[in-house]
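agent: user wants the full assembly modeled, not chains individually. Plan: 1) parse entity lines 2) check alphabet per entity 3) run joint structure prediction 4) return tokens. Steps 1-2 passed, four entities, 230 residues total. Proceeding.
--- entities ---
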Amino acid sequence: MSQLDEQAFGHVARFFQALAEPMRLKILNGLRDGEKNVSELVEVSGGTQANVSKHLALLRDAKIIKRESRGTKAYYSIADQRIYELCNLVCGQIASQMSLDAAANEVFISALKTN
Amino acid sequence: MSQLDEQAFGHVARFFQALAEPMRLKILNGLRDGEKNVSELVEVSGGTQANVSKHLALLRDAKIIKRESRGTKAYYSIADQRIYELCNLVCGQIASQMSLDAAANEVFISALKTN
DNA sequence: TTTCTATATAACCATATACTCATGTAATAT
DNA sequence: ATATTACATGAGTATATGGTTATATAGAAA
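--- prediction returned ---
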């Protein structure tokens, strides 16, 4: 396996790693409808300010979100819309894996999609 | 945020987590062209037998691969083809993020796709 | 300047993860 | 029955990760 491949697997793994955390998914979910500042994200995610800031830094490192500072606030937004394609793919998969009856399944899927 | 959402984020996170490891990506890459037994996967991944077995167990838990035992060997294969859609999405993203010139970029992408 | 508000970051701790080595187990072959 | 081959798993260890609390920094307001 080439050196290039090795590197590539590392990159891809780090990318998935950034999405492998419930709180970060919550934050990304909060950004579905556009930019939010940190305080707003703290609200919707239910996390602490310090913790949310850390996750935001990590997501930014992974180039998944971008930051724009305006006045004393920091506005974050999605840098790559493909995130949601990814999540939707995974959500479909998860939903189909869960042994829910059809009704519950529908609730589940719509809960994921309408946020 | 509903209880259902909380659960959902957890599920999705665990799914991404399974993909957030270079060795596991290597293994999945090794399964692109069909089933392989553990020894073959040890070969193509370059890992130790114990370690590969553990990653296989984890991937199986995540329902990403399935196992079929034949004789004394264990054959693994992809349980959900969407994995590769995911990886391709991410690879495209990674490639476009890397500051490579066009030529190098092409090499990079084809290296990812042709394995 | 001082103060307040918004955000980032350091220090620290607990848990999770990935790896290695050694050993267990199961099917086959001798 | 014993040995061999193929795989799984437990124990132990090092590092990574996620969380908390306390503090630093930066801009706006008084």
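agent: reporting back. Strands of chain A lie at 36-37, 65-70, 73-78. The longest strand of chain A covers residues 65-70.
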